[in-house]
């Protein structure tokens, strides 16, 4: 079995909330800034997204918000679009720059199973889909795009179509399950060396010989 890639995982594509907040002192907050900030509000649950509360956290008035969005519903849609772009489109784009499908798969597994604060956003979006009909279509599209990309990687490694799909669904199911476990019971996965060893174990398990 091939060794896991030694290439370190790239930093998260999600901007830190304080970096977004700092932009209020320059040209002012753009629609993208508001959407990216809203993602961090979603980490506390979809119901936690409030225009007034978000403006207060950003240190600005609500007036700036209404230059870009009509209401909270528009902000939620913009935040979901940013989540899809950052957590799926951009990730795939970065992976495609790597030279081989095996290296792409190893890097993808390293990215998805390493601790990342944006994992709370994913869990909140999944949980919120049951209560908010605007979220479900986005979640379904993102999940399908990710599984399709995994199928493409496994096919490139020589697996037949049906087997590649089985591996892809297994990999994505493992990711979703571990994401929930990391938030609901973080001690289960350990920290430091123990967690790193487990991530390597998962990568080996999800990589065909």
Automatic annotation (TrEMBL):
Name one matching Pfam family: TetR_N
Q: Which Gene3D superfamilies match?
A: Tetracycline Repressor, domain 2
Q: Does the keyword DNA-binding apply?
A: yes
UniProt signal peptide: none
The residues covered by the HTH tetR-type domain are 44-79
Looking at the keywords, is RNA-binding present? no
Domain of life, source organism? Bacteria
UniProt keywords, alphabetically: DNA-binding
Q: Name one GO molecular function term.
A: transcription cis-regulatory region binding
Write down what this protein is called.
Answer: TetR/AcrR family transcriptional regulator
């Amino acid at each position: 079995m091939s060794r896991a890639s030694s290439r370190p995982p790239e930093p998260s594509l999600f901007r830190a909330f304080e970096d977004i907040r700092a932009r209020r002192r320059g040209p002012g907050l753009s629609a993208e800034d508001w959407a990216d900030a809203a993602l961090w509000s979603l980490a506390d649950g979809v119901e936690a997204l409030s225009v007034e509360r978000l403006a207060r956290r950003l240190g600005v008035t609500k007036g700036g918000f209404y230059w870009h969005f009509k209401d909270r519903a528009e902000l939620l849609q913009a935040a979901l679009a940013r989540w899809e772009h950052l957590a799926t489109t951009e990730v795939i784009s970065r992976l495609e720059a790597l030279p081989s499908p095996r290296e792409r798969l190893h890097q993808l597994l390293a990215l998805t199973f390493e601790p990342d604060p944006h994992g709370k956003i994913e869990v909140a979006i999944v949980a919120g889909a049951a209560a908010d009909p605007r979220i479900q279509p986005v979640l379904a599209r993102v999940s399908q795009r990710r599984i399709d990309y995994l199928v493409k990687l496994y096919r490139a490694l020589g697996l037949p179509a049906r087997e590649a799909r089985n591996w892809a669904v297994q990999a994505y199911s493992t990711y979703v399950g571990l994401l929930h476990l990391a938030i609901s019971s973080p001690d289960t996965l350990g920290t430091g060396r123990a967690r790193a060893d487990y991530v390597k174990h998962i990568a080996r398990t999800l990589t065909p010989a």
